[in-house]
C-alpha cells in the first residue's frame, strides 16, 4: 500500500469518527458515563475543527491520488533512456 492510500485511509477514518462524534450523542453518553460531563461544553471547539481537518486531509489525499494516476507513461520510473525494462 503506497503513501497516498494510507493518507486516504486515515482521512476517511478520521472524518467518519469525527462526524459520528459531532452528529450523534455517542460522545455525550460516553462522557456522561465516565463522569466527564463537564467537558461537554467544549466539544464543539475540538470536534468541528477536527472534522474540518480530516475532510481537508481526505480531499488532499484524493487530489494526490488523482494526480499520480494522470502521470504519462513516459515519466514512469520503469523507463530509462526510452526503453522499457
UniProtKB/TrEMBL annotation:
- A GO-annotated cellular component: membrane
The entry's keywords:
Membrane, Transmembrane, Transmembrane helix
UniProt key word Zinc: no
Determine if Membrane is one of this entry's keywords.
yes
Q: Which domain of life is it from?
A: Bacteria
- Where are its TM segments located? 7-33, 45-63
Q: Name one Pfam family in it.
A: Transport_MerF
Q: What is this protein called?
A: Mercury resistance system transport protein MerF
Q: Which organism is it from?
A: Photobacterium frigidiphilum
